[in-house]
Design a protein that fits this description.
The protein has about 170 residues and is mainly alpha-helical. It has one domain. Helices cover about 75% and strands about 0% of the residues. It has six helices and no strands. Helix 1 packs antiparallel against helix 3 and helix 2 packs across helix 3. The protein is rod-shaped and about 95 Å long.
Length: about 170
Amino acid sequence: MNWEAIGAIGEVLGAVAVFISLSYLALQIKSNTASMEVTSRQSVANEYRDWIRAFHSAEPEHFTRGMSDYPNMPFRAHTEFAVSCHDLVLFYQSAQAMREAGTLPDANHEPYRVWVAAVLCTPGGRNFWAEWKPSYNVGMTSALEERMEAGGLPNPLDYPMFQLDKE
């Protein structure tokens, strides 16, 4: 066997090794991406759950009244509504960042965008948004504004948890 044949065999073996290595790397990237998506979905769900718990542990009627009356409310109610809205918008900002990074699929992202946009479309939500929108990330605010302008949003005040006259 001459050196040219040995060199050709070496090149073929090297090409096979590179192919196997790249295939393995592709599988690892795919597995890691799937894992990151699951982690992102869980993280967003946990943040939303935390917002709901905080909402119920405070004075939920302040949030409900705030959706109609903000900012014309007593100081404590005004503040609690604003803090709840900030928490909700910051939660969405996190979800939007994960979506932009490709780790939160649209199917998981869109329901959160709809809910936050719906809250911000209430009379009090619009007043909050007009006051505080400049303090948030432009990409996130654009995504919310786009959804708000599209319309067809649910009215949060129609949800039983926000109806004050029912015990």
